[in-house]
Specification:
Layout: E1 4-10, E2 16-20, E3 32-33, H1 35-64, H2 71-98, E4 103-104, H3 106-129
Parallel strand pairs: 3-4
Antiparallel strand pairs: 1-2
Helix pairs in contact: 1-2, 1-3, 2-3
Length: 130
């Protein structure tokens, strides 16, 4: 069923111009992105930035071959604490966002992938270096 109305003025092909009625769209408002999914994606990115920071700080300490606690080594402590917290919080937010029915799922999927990859990396590091 076509929900349009004819207007007396000619349209582009010489026929009557047809404009949609104000109630023609079945969904007046498209679903929005999930705020929880966006937050999960941001936390996943923060976790991966922390992993990159840990790698760079470790490479810096090893390249200088310094023994003991240096400023770079002390800088690793907050990153080591923040990374698992970001992964756990991101996973929780991603699972909560996945349960929302009236929202888009793009950021939920990205956040879930980032945080699951981060959790797998951290678990692998723990099992390898314990």
């Amino acid at each position: 069923m076509d929900q349009t109305t004819d207007i007396a003025s000619p349209g582009p092909a010489g026929g009557p111009r047809r404009e949609p009625l104000p109630y023609a769209h079945p969904h007046p408002e498209a679903p929005r992105h999930s705020g929880l999914g966006i937050a999960a994606t941001v936390l996943g990115c923060v976790g991966w930035v922390c992993v990159a920071g840990l790698y760079l700080l470790t490479a810096s300490v090893r390249a200088r071959q310094v023994q003991g606690m240096t400023n770079e080594a002390l800088g690793m402590i907050p990153l080591m604490c923040l990374t698992p917290l970001a992964a756990a919080a991101g996973l929780g937010l991603a699972f909560a966002a996945a349960s929302q029915r009236d929202r888009k799922r793009m950021f939920v999927t990205i956040g879930l992938a980032l945080n699951l990859g981060l959790a797998a990396l951290l678990a692998g590091w723990y099992l390898l270096f314990k």
